[in-house]
Amino acid sequence: MSEFFTTVSETEARNISPVTLAFVGDAVYTLFVRQNLVAGHDYPTGTLQKLSSAEVSAHGQNALLARIAPLLTEEEAAVFKRGRNAKKPTRSKNATVAEYNNSTGLEALIGYLYLIGNYARLEELLNEEK
Fold first, then answer.
1. Which of 30, 41, 43, 122 has the CA that lies 20 to 30 A from 75?
2. How deeply is 39 buried, as exposed, middle or buried, from its count of CB atoms within 10 A (0-12, 13-18, 19+)?
3. Are 58 and 103 in contact (CB under 8 A)?
4. Is 81 exposed, middle or buried (0-12, 13-18, 19+ CB in 10 A)?
5. What is the rounded distance in angstroms from the CA atom of residue 109 to the CA atom of residue 18?
6. How many Cβ atoms from other residues are within 10 Å of residue 15's Cβ?
7. In angstroms, rounded to a whole number, what is the distance separating the alpha carbons of residues 33 and 130?
8. What average pLDDT does this structure show over 15-43?
9. How does residue 4 score in pLDDT terms, banded at 50, 70 and 90?
10. Is 42 designated active site?
11. Mutual orientation of helices 45-56 and 58-68 as an angle, nearest 10°?
12. Crossing angle for the helix pair 18-40 and 45-56, nearest 10 degrees?
C-alpha cells in the first residue's frame, strides 16, 4: 500500500526516467497552482480552470523557468537538462518545440524535488515572484 508523501533517495530519483519525473512533476505543479488559485480567490470553477491552464501550460511554465533558472543548483540544472533533452512520447499542440522541451525539463525538476522530499526548495522555486 502506498502513502502520501513517500520519498525516495536522491540516488533512486536520479535513476528514474526524466519523462517519469516530468509525469509526477506535472501533477505536483498542477496541484500547487490550483491550490494557490483556490486559496487566493473565490472564482467559479470555469474561471479557475482557465487561470490554471494558462499557468500550467508550456508557455506559462517557460515564464516560471525564466525566473528560476538563475537560482538552480548544479544538481537541479542537471535534472532539468535531463528532462529537457529526453525523448518524449508526445508532441505539443500549442507550444513551440523549445517551450515544450523546457516545460518537460521543469516538470522533471519539480517531480525530482517532490520525490526526494525537498518540499522547502520546491516551494522556494515555485513561489518565485512574477
1. 30
2. exposed
3. yes
4. middle
5. 9
6. 9
7. 13
8. 94
9. confident
10. no
11. 60
12. 140
